[in-house]
Amino acid sequence: MIQEKFTRKELYDLIWSKPLTTLAKEYQISDNGLRKKCKTHNIPLPKMGHWNKVKFNKKLEVIPLPNEKESENQFIILNSREERENNEEHILTKLARVTSEIKMECPTLINVKDKLIKPDILVQEAREDLKTKKPRRLGDHFEPVRTSVNVLGIHVAKENVQSSLCFMDAFIKLAKKRGHEIVNRQYGTIIIVYDQKYKIRLREKCNRLIIQDRRWKSSELIPNGKFSFKLESYPRKEWSDGKTKIEKYLPKILATIEIRAEERKITSAKNDLERKVLEK
Questions:
Q1: Is 255 a residue whose pLDDT tops 90?
Q2: What is the per-residue pLDDT across 223-251, written as a single tens digit (0 to 9) for each?
Q3: In whole angstroms, what is the distance from residue 196 CA to residue 153 CA?
């Protein structure tokens, strides 16, 4: 049976033994719930990148447990029932919190630069791939160019390739700093967050131009210079240029994906547990 009652020192040792996402799965609660427990009882958490350092045997910074007066009978409870009984954090509050965390932890990575500086390898591959693409003329305009299979998902007009690469480079560097992985597959570009996979793509939006011929009407899609970043895995989500450029939404985009991945992982773990109970 999984232990539910911990002393403050026991919970500290537990938090520093495994990643929060792993513990959340074991105890059927959210990692945000674990964070709240630790904050309430003044228990320090491992810093961003700690578990990557463990994986590669790098030097670690372990924050000692601050001294506090504790009662011998005081225990911290970890269980899903208690968490459900508490008021859940509103999704917009959670989004604002995680977005703020990303801004504070990665202040130098949330801005999209005007030119590529030491671009990520995926961006380098996309740049070389797009150099070989030739846009097809549509009337007085040229259609967008598209990256090849197994290359970063980009679909923009030729003159906007540089801007699209800068955006994707900023997104990839920010995601990797947060401990996530981005890979190219035959079916598209995938971001892996908390073991959950989401397909992403950057494209340029188009306006439909109606062409009146003598006998019938036809239409062409003309690139309009506005970018759209799409989360193509269900439930789909899209951020587009408007009064505010999508580059300003960079932390919010990643925060949305992190929240969805966390919720999906918890739900999946819960379903697995229920399935095992039914099978038993």
A1: yes
A2: 888 999 999 988 899 999 999 999 999 99
A3: 19
Strands (E), 158-265: 181-185, 188-193, 196-212, 217-231, 237-240
3-state secondary structure at position 62: coil
Buried/exposed 4-30: b ≥16 CB within 10 Å, e otherwise:
eebbbeebbebbbeebbbebbbebbbb
CA–CA separation, 147 vs 165, rounded Å?
A: 11
Angle between helices 20-27 and 31-40 (to 10 degrees): 100
pLDDT of residue 178: 93
Confidence of residue 87 (pLDDT cuts 50, 70, 90): very low
Rounded CA gap, 58 and 268, in Å?
32
Sequence spans of domains, the chain:
5-86, 121-266
pTM of the model: 0.66
Q: Which residues pair with 221 in a beta bridge?
A: 208
